[in-house]
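@channel anyone free to eyeball this complex?
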Amino acid sequence: MSPFWARPTAAVALSAALFILSQGASRADEALDRALQNNDNWPMYGRTYDNQRFSPLKQIDDQNVGGLKLAWAFQVGALRSNESSPIVIDGTMYLTSSSGPKSVFALDAKTGMMKWQFQPDVAEDVQPYVCCDLDSRGVAFADGKILFSQLDGYLSALDAQTGKLLWKSKVVDYKDGETNTSPPLIVKNMAIIGFSGGEYGARGAIQAYDIGTGKQLWKTWTIPGPGEPGNDTWKGDSWQHGGGAPWYVGSYDRKTNTIFYGTSNPAPWNAAVRSTGTSDYGKLTNAGSSSTLALDPDTGKIKWEIQSTPAETWDYDGVNELVLADVQISGQSTPIYMKADRDGFFFVANRDTGKLVSAEPFVPVNWAKSFDVETDRPIEDPAKRPRLDYKATDICPSWMGGKNWQPISFNPMTGLAYIPSNNMCQDMKLADVTFRRGAFFLGNDFAVTPGHGDYLGRLVALDPATQKPAWHMDLPLPWNGGTMTTAGNLVFFGDIQGIFHALDAKTGKELWRMNLGSGIGAGPITFAVDGKQYVAVLAGRAEGPPAFMGEVGKKIIAATPEGGTLFVFSL
Amino acid sequence: MLKRRTGGRRGASRRPLLPCLAVLLAFWGVAQSAVPAAAAADSAPPFRLCADPDNLPFSATSRDTPGYYIELGRAIADRLGRPFEPVWELTYFAKRAVRTTLLAGRCDGFIGLPDDPDYMGQKLIFSKPVLEPGYALVLPHGMSVKTLSDLVGHRVAVQFASSPQNLLATRDDIQMVTALSPEEAMRDLSGGRADLAFIWGPSAGWLNKTTAGGAYDVVPVAGPHMQWRAVIGFAAGETALRDQVNAALDALGGEANALMKKYGFPSGSPVSLAATEATSQPASAGTANDSAATATGQTAAVVPPSPPVAAPSPDAHAVDQGHELFNENCSHCHGPDAVEGERRRNLRLLHHRYGDTFDHVFMTTVTHGRVEKGMPNWSGILTGDQFQEILAYLHSIQEP
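replying in thread with the prediction:
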């Protein structure tokens, strides 16, 4: 267990703190707060700061969902890898397409009629630097503005009324292999954002920008530098290029004024460069990578961190979203975060104290026999750790993770988390893979293989208090879409074959389905306008990741064509 | 993040690379008999070679120093009796670059791939090695390194995620200074942050020659993961072309070695720094470099293959001419006076989009087309001067 850490941040932190003080008390973003108080809205990626993807709306429920009909559809004008969650505020929907994004839209949420369209100038040559397709996961709303990430490393702000560009700030340089795919987290006067691409020599960082001006307020490295706690968990100067990129969305706990981010795997792939390269890594855990970080949003200081995969080498990013909830554990209401990690363990931790509560596999796992929550360490199987010239076979889960970015949801009424999981394994070794730019570069050479059992994907309904599954639904392919759940006792999700499902949240019984014609990755949302509830999901199959999935990837690509359509349903 | 991987992908559409093999073979005969190939080259299909546009000393769009691969590719094309045409593709994700260019029919060969039959499964076949590059020590004059232990107590600049980094990671008594590029490692060396460097040999030799004024000795290193063979990859099935290219490589004689010398590739006997005695030394290590050292300097006259890069003309007359040409030829797709609502076709955003590479992108696009996006190739329709005039006009109307 890591102690409470107060890692010094970049020099800007101090001036940022002074800047905030000079503004008087750190003010909350009132427009977003108002939007959050209206249950009809879906005002941010995970609907609320806790990232539960739960809506209290219940006009559509387990009794009437069978009558769901198409209300309207909208073509986003960009095919493949449409991963965006729309947001809805007071009857207006905002969403991004993939490819840069190619477009940001404001739509009348009742009719789908377009209010405005903004097409950012995204560098034409960004594609060669993007590992996993030209995705965009959506926008954030704050203070009359719509903020979004551009693949070419910019954070941009538009006027929510007109779609006019207000400012644009460079977060990273895509030519260093760093790109932006996820919407920022809005806290007070700040847009907080990470970036992707940690494998290629970057040192991960979380950065905060002033919503009004786009100026950077603070920057906190995820990987500790010299003199910072945890720097001695890195061998030599390896911390400088240690990866740990926080490329997905953050969460925020207003009560303790804490933001939470997951970080990606460490770099380079050969763990011997930054650790021992063996399961006996001792103190060389590579702190800050494959971890959950808790930070003070006012200063960017790290309060504490919990590592999910120490001295990681399998491509088990720890970036997956942190879902915050207060649940009864052993008779006590406990403030937790839950995380369905890439490494196959479902982590439950007390988010006030930074102490792990439980960590159990939610998919077949064999790289570690178990996870010891007292020492915060997995009990590894050394035969499953690939090394230079040592091929480890049948490692479960694969790089796709027990779960990848496709978001889970949590329903406080059923007490269940709904996880789109992957049952895939892999063979892996560290090998020479690429001849470019002045070197034969080394990476981990791997081949994914179907997991054990007659399913490759599984929707798991898990009780985070007990770590016991309540029910599951097997799926023939992995890489299925994110989930959303409602007070109407429903779970919605789309699968990679393009079928959009509504299930009974308590039992998993399928109550409704509709073929949307292209594989679905994005998480659905729900909202209401003028007293009528709608459910929306963006369909548009991934192209990049299936290209890495061998025969299974071929099946995914054969199942549906690319697409890019938002479908909106109502009774 | 996900990793760059190229497992199964849906079948890339592959069009015939050589629509007129018989014609080609006829010209091949001409070339073989050492008749100047100019006449043949006028009508033979171009030898299209995919390469990275920004990867010196191997390949670049630069006019004066296009890199060893490009000059070699041109020499091969001469032997084939075909005009040479480089096709540029960044290799940040190398296998994807091969998929989207070579395997999509956009070029006939991809130069600089590793000589590994498993590199992309059954999709590729390979030429003979065109280069045997490897890692090298960069030592201040007078410094001698014979074994790994000679590095103890020194600060050694290495590249991130490279074989030298992995080798030195096995020793706790050697201090590494990690750099992201050979350029950065050389700066660490010249700036006193490292005592020596252990980096990619061709880059080290090139930088030592071009930026360090030969201040260092560049010594090839033998051992596991240290020496490689680079080849030209062809789509599986293109055995005829592969065989012709191999024959052309044989016919090059000392020309390849002269090019290696031109680009400063390291020569001399390799030193073995293997971590253990048991590791075998690749038989080929240093061969190419030794040959380079004995080359006689009969460097062929090299014509830059990259499209001519035009300087923007301040000439108002050229702008007017270009304006007229634009409205006659380009406005059908790009809008009269280049006023265009579809951003992707809006040529008033070229500077915004391409910055300093504006001119280069323009010339490449008009002389090669972007067929997949609907842009035709205007070579032979408009003249070089007319391209310059249109470019001058476009420069005059860029949005800030």
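from a first look: Chain A is about 5% helix and 40% strand.
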